[in-house]
Amino acid sequence: MHQRSNAIRVGLGRGLLAVIGVALLCALGCAKEPRHATKGATTKTVEARVQTPPPTLFEVNRRLPPRHRVLKAQGRPGESLVIWRVYYRNGKEVRRVKVREEVLEPPQPRIYEIGVHGHIASRGAVGRSGAFRTAKVLTMHASAYTPHRSGGGTGSGRTATGLPAGYGLVAVDPRVIPLGTVLYIEGYGMAIAADTGRAIRGHKIDLCYATRQQAIQFGRRKVRVHILRAAPAAPPPKPPDDAENADDAPKDPDTDSS
Fold first, then answer.
1. Domain end marker among 80, 110, 140
2. How far apart are alpha carbons 215 and 226 in whole angstroms?
């Protein structure tokens, strides 16, 4: 009899715990309702004008010294009209969906002419293309080495891709920057990701210099690395609106025309 009573108590206790657990899960589920849920929400269409930053283009100018960069065109941001469908619940925004985007004014690219070191001028994509656009910019921790063993190199004079080591060929982590990628490294110049290293992991990059003294002088520092993609040559920059309308502007009646 006592055993049966104990069994009943255990069963009731487990049942009560199960009910409490279900209630807690329900409460948590209600409190953490997914933001994407739109059932019962009110909607509103919102328009916004958004500025598009000018893309950056690099044009190779083999008459410029290596590491030199000259601004050819300042560029100009563009403007787009973006239409959103916004969902509200209890007066608070819970979701926003882009319905349409219309380009009102395309951006004009910022164009730099850059010199390229002779060691890479005819190699890979650098030799095949004369213009590149910035696809992405990474902030990386840079170190420096030379092809010789005393400067951190392998001593073989060859990179992991088989190219002869020299200025403009840099070591990267291929999981971050694929080998063969063309780069522009601020403060160093145009480069090709052509080598690897045991210590080069993640957002680290090793820059090759011709001499050990140059590598020591560079030391270690943070650099901005532009990941480049081949691009068609940019069209001539669009003249300012004032220049276009100069001939149509009304003349000052007080100006002497003689």
1. 110
2. 21
pLDDT digits (tens, 9 = 90+) for 112-151: 999 988 888 777 788 778 899 999 999 999 999 988 765 5
Residues 6 or more apart whose Cβ sits within 8 Å of residue 252: none
Instruction: Tell which phi-psi region holds residue 26, choosing left (phi > 0), alpha (psi between -120 and 50) or beta.
Output: alpha
Q: What is the mean pLDDT of residues 69-86?
A: 94
141 and 157 share one domain: yes
Query: Positive or negative, the Cα torsion across 142, 143, 144, 147?
Result: negative
Residues 114/60, Cβ–Cβ less than 8 Å: yes
Q: What is the DSSP code string of 25-41?
A: HHHHHHHT--TT--TT-
Query: What range defines the domain where residue 54 resides?
Result: 42-110
Is residue 128 a part of any domain in this protein? yes
d(CA 256, CA 102): 47
Q: Is residue 80 part of a domain?
A: yes
Both structure tokens of 143: 């170190």
- At position 206, the amino acid (one-letter code) is D
Do 129 and 150 have their domain in common? Answer: yes
Beta bridge partners of 185: 189, 225
